[in-house]
Amino acid sequence: MRVMPVMIGLTLAAAVWGRDLEPASSAEFCGRCHRTILEAWKRSAHARAMESPLFQDALEMAVEAYGAGTSQMCLNCHAPLASLTQDSSWRRKTTWEGVTCDYCHSVRSVALGAGNPKAAVELSLVKSGPLKDVVAPAHGAQYSPVHTTSLICAPCHEYRNALGFPVLTTYSEWEKSRYAEEGKGCPACHMYQVAGAVADPKVAANSSAKLNLHEMPGSHSVDQLNRTIKAQLNALREGDHLKVTVVIANVAAGHMVPTGSPMRQLLLDVTASPYGGETLHEQRAYRRVVADKQGKAVPREPDAFLRGASTLSDNRLAPDEKRTETFLFPMGGRAQVQVTATVSYYYSPLAEGEAQKRMTFLTLRRLVK
Questions:
Q1: What's the rounded mean pLDDT across residues 301-319?
Q2: Stated pTM of the model
């Protein structure tokens, strides 16, 4: 006898909250029912994809150097609903929400072919996702196998430019890894399940106790980087020199580290500071260097995406790869030495200030007497 009023209340709440639902609604509107998911998504790189100052600077440079037509290429991934809703003046809220709810949950399939991966998107009141047998009071819902695999990520994390050069290769890197063979896709690491209700209890009485993490932690997450990159530091004296070895390994990423933009780097810095003496420093950089058709290394993201034609070098850490780096510092005398090794993620030369350009996530120290 007590169930009916509760169910009527839920139905009325869903009807009121979903009354203004449009085929392309803003994330804030979706958050009326999916509050936990909205709050996590707001902390994601997807939410900042359009409004990021770094992206805005790169977009301005691309348009100035290569013409207004390049804008659409960038927005296809950084604000995918802009073209789908024909918001050429960027006035809709969904445009500035970057990779927003109604884009991902309107993807019906992804096709791989000779060119770039392409998502089939259907803007409607039926939302697609990884859950089966879902009944949504405010809109239709359908199970989508593509949302359970890496394919859902491929259209924006695999890209060949007009010259046919593969600028972004994260998806194909994953395809070559053991993770692909084992059926462990991108969502397993970047959208793993956490406790929480898919929909607010006011709207759906039978919300799942588990949901996929929409924060999607990646290279800006210290926790994610520490799970992915492990290192060991050793140091010993060899005559008048100090020999330092660092074993660094990609233990958890199903793609190269770093991945994505060729401007990204993983930096290993080692310093030897003898008591009362001068500090010595060496660095190893793990990166992919992209060149234009003349064989000249490109310096910025817009150049890599639009003029990239070949890879000059690539020493990034592959999945499951372990590498030993050796440093030899001249060290006369027997003074004790403080050895420090730091591992940092370098994002872009376009970032303003050192704090935005790189983030140190791992520090190791040894005292050599």
A1: 97
A2: 0.91
